[in-house]
Amino acid sequence: MIRAQPDFERFRTAVLCREPDRVPLAELKVEDAVKAAFLGRALADPATDPAGYLRDDIEFATRAGYDYVRITARLDYPEVKTAHKHRYGAYEAATERAWVQLAGGAISTWEDFEAFAWPRAEEADMRALDVAASLLPPTMKAVTAVRGGGIFERAWTLMGMEHFAFCLADAPDLVRAVVQHAGRLYVDTCARAVEREGVECIWLSDDLAHCGGLLVSPHFLREAVFPFYRELAQICRARNLLFIFHSDGNLWEVMGDLVDIGFNALHPIEPKAMDIVEVKRRYAGRLCVIGNIDLGYTLTRGTPEEVEREVRERIRALAPGGGYCVSSSNSVTEYVPLANYKAMIEATLRHGTYPIRA
Questions:
Q1: Does residue 1 fall inside a structural domain?
Q2: What is the pLDDT of residues 7-46, one digit of tens each?
Q3: Sheet with strand 199-205: strands edge to edge
Q4: Confidence band for 82, pLDDT divided at 50, 70 and 90
Q5: Domain holding 225: CATH number?
Q6: Overall domain count for the chain
Q7: How far, in Å, CA of 218 to CA of 260, rounded?
Q8: What is the pTM of this model?
Q9: Looking at the domain assignment, is residue 358 inside a domain?
Q10: DSSP assignment string, 32-44
Q11: 84-111 b/e with 16+ CB inside 10 Å = b?
């Protein structure tokens, strides 16, 4: 397997829409089952050996060809969830996931809101970021965010999506109050996280859309959510940090807003939701595009040869001039076969050297 040394300046150069030495690899998340299979051994338990887990994560990122490690600040909310165990086909270990309730959440009324045990930003757990400062190789940096989703996601999670949607019409002040609290906590926690040594990027994950369009009106996002994004952008500008946005779905209605806010890059640009070539064409030089290697078929049910072909096509179409990083169209899940994941990495390293061949 082709090896590459981590170099965060490579990633920075691409995200700022210039040509580095090669097209970077970038993922919001690679599941632990995939990391363990890639390394050929179990990972340390993050609950009992957080430093060991972080060492394993850094080793994985280094060997897989990434220029950074994503390390989140932990801000614990009391939430209503239902746990399910699933066994995916690509790996032996069962994966336990906690699914958010759609019909109801912890906050349904003003009384719930007032009684809710809101966490405080100063209580956020930054230990992983603190440990990382002594473990990261000199050329590798940390990408950070707040664990558990973004601002919009946190708000509807606390209320349940169905109740949140009804309250947009029936109790809009309650919805805005929840968003305000969630947004303030997110921004204040990020402001503390970026003070840690080695942090060079905020990668905000906040799903706003499905494949057909936005989950709520653009007016609501502009009024209630985007002001917090602008605060995060100001934090990044003040410290010369990269600012990356992840959202599933079709974002065309607010693409101009996202660029104006100051995001440097957009991820993951699902093939069934948006045409990544058109995104690059419209915002070339202003917005790096990350992702688009199809999780629906190619990475999960395709062959390694099909993965290589798709990666090569994306690099040829998107990499010239800079502003493209290879990534899945969501994340590297437990149902991505290891052979396909390795094929994506190897194809990027093989075909992504600048100048890009036609």
A1: no
A2: 999 999 999 999 999 999 999 999 999 999 999 999 999 9
A3: 68-70, 141-144, 199-205, 242-246, 265-267, 288-290, 324-325
A4: low
A5: 3.20.20.210
A6: 1
A7: 14
A8: 0.96
A9: no
A10: HHHHHHHHTSPPP
A11: eeeebebbeeebeeeebbeeebbbbeee
